[in-house]
Amino acid sequence: MRRKEVKQEEMTQLVVFRLGEEEFGVEILEVQEIILLSPITRVPRAPEFVEGVINLRGEIIPVVDLRKRFGLSADELKDEARIVVVDVNENLVGMIVDEVTQPLSLPTSQIQPPPPLAGGVEATYLRGIGKLEGRLIVILNLERALSASEVQALEEMEVS
Amino acid sequence: MQNKKYLDAYLDESGELLERLDGQLVELEASGAGIDELFRIFHTLKGSSASMGLEQVATLSHRLEDVLGQVRDGKLEASPELVDFLLSGADGIRALIAQETGSGPTFGRYGELIEQAMAFLGQKEEGSQHAKAASGLQLELSAKEEEQAQEPLWQLSLRIAEDCPFKGARALLIIRELGKLGKVHKYAPASSQFHNDNYDGSLVAIFSTALPHDKLEAELESKVLTDVTAHRLEPYIGQRQNRTNGKRTNGSIRVEAAKLDRLLNLAGELVIGQAQLDRIAGQLGDDQLKGVAANSQRLILDLQDAVMKVRMVPLESVFGRFPRLVRDLSRELEKKVEFVLEGTDTEVDRTVAEGLLDPLMHLLRNAMDHGIEQPQLRLAQGKSETGRVTLGAAQEGEAVTITVEDDGKGIDSASVRESALAHGLVTEERLEEMTDHELLNLVFFPGLSTAKNVTDVSGRGVGMDVVRSTIESLGGVVSVESSPGEGTRTTIRLPLTLAIVRALLVQVGGETYAIPLSQIVELVNVGSREIQNVRDQECFLYREEVVGIYDLGQVLDVPGYRPDPTRAKRIVLIDCGQRLVGCRVDQYLGQENIVVKAVGGYLPQLPFLGGATILGDGQVVLILDGRNLVA
User: Fold this and answer.
1) Cβ of A60 and B600 within 8 Å?
2) Nearest-CA distance from A29 to chain B in Å?
3) CATH number, domain at B194?
4) Does domain A11-159 have CATH number 2.40.50.180?
5) What is the pTM assigned to this prediction?
6) What pLDDT is stored for residue B143 in this prediction?
7) Are residues B458 and B377 part of one domain?
8) Which residues on B lie below 8 Å from A50 (Cβ)?
9) Most exposed residue of B39, B239, B287, B437, measured as fewest CB within 10 angstroms of its CB?
């Protein structure tokens, strides 16, 4: 009897959340925690998608609205909305999302490079697209997606 | 080199001693005072270097101590040349320590310095006798014996004249006379020696007395030192202790800065926690609980205060090296300068103290180089030949003010204008509008050096703007005033501490902000009648200065903000260094001790924010940096 060799497939684990109608994902290792919406203190003259700062157990962290970041339609936040706290280059940032769905594991081989525009977001901010059971998960490149400096540069260009 | 594990402590201690040495030597040259202290320093250096196995350092210190001994006994004068030598001796010690501990290159002048010392020592005949006064006799008190001495300890070494018939008897009499002046703790040789025929007449005694030095000398001369050819009196310095006229040094210990930082953080968190406790107690309405909360608040504020004070160091630690700097510069530039230090016991946070070193050095160099004129020039102008540079510090409320002042030629505002125009910093029109004060403070902009000759000491035009940015990074402000022909004064204002500050909470259009008290000059209510419109800018007069009024609601883009035109304006007056700024707020919410927290590296640096804090109710409040609120 032949033993079937079971190959260990490399898996990618994602935290999945919803922005508007689209589903997005970030690698689980980048997520520190997921919390309920808490009072946000506005920060004047910050980039528009920066909602402000919150108190995370004594630490003050900035919170961004990804929908504004990517120019997606931003409906009123419902009860399901959450803040996903991620670690970007050793800085903590909170991202406001409409809803957090079940985390998933999918084979890395199932992740394809992103088309120029996916889920309303340009490819430069993405790591890839994951396909699982008919769902399309747009996987974010957090470093680029949250890069405030880029946005500022763009804003400065517009003004001049 | 032995004892590697004590190396850090030794390096710390010797570093401090060498710094004090510089200051004392300059003092010696200026006023002739402080020999005792200098002795102590050399003596301690000698002892600790010897125990670390640093032979050359110990020997050099010993020789320098001997030279100093000549000065104190009036055999040598503390001339500028002698002081120069002692200063280079101190430098030599520094270099030797660096060489021996591997942090510096080989020091080549050891032999030279020893020779120079011997040259000074050989100058007077009696000098060599001094060295013989108590040669071979060593005396030490045990730590316990030292403890027991109530009064300052002295060591007297002498040599009874050769031709004195009963040297032994004389020695005993001397001991007895000494006993009348104070208490004799120990003497050598033992009294049994005195009966010996070949007793050579040398005697060393350690005694304590309440008599001050000059009276002691007088008594010794008249009552004790009959038939004595050479004698030497010096304060007795124990191995481990450093006694200063009976006062012990302040029993300090060294602490790693990181440990202090942790303490401070914890204190800060406690403050926040207690505020929450307070609030909840208030909500629950339980009197007992409220009482406990109130009590804890008192204790925690005291604790916080104490911890902040731990981080404070007297400015003396920074100012200490400046007398030497000024002295060296005055020699180099061939100018006569009197250097005055004021308020050296004013304390600031240690990070602030460290950060002040470079800016102050630069300001002092400027004062010496560009401020004080050559002696002939000063005389020609009817000024005293010797210029004066003053470095002063004082605490004013929540801030510390440091001033560098000189009575030199002042800043030439015409040069500043030219330079500013040439560098394209300002337009002609803007220049016209500027007040003298604003004009002068242009010197803080990069590239603006008005020195005609770029001297070696300063004048490259990179200085003042670095001074300003350094002071600002410490949370402070700097400004300059000057009178042509009379002098210049630079004023630095710094907050007392960085981590926990007292701030005023204000409300602007429904949002709450905190402004550090150290930046606030005053809170004023300005009625509509007092407001004038100057070129589209609302202003009012505050003590003869025209101050612009800025609506914080507009400055901070508060959504939906609409100022109420009818009510008197509540203005927070902020000191931005070069000018005052009036910020209008809706309400004052009270003063609080707040812990300054960073807002995290993600947000781009917003210059008008000085961090954020968390109030007792968990609310995040942004801290405004008044210096950068308005352009």
Assistant:
1) yes
2) 19
3) 3.30.70.1110
4) yes
5) 0.57
6) 64
7) yes
8) 603
9) B287
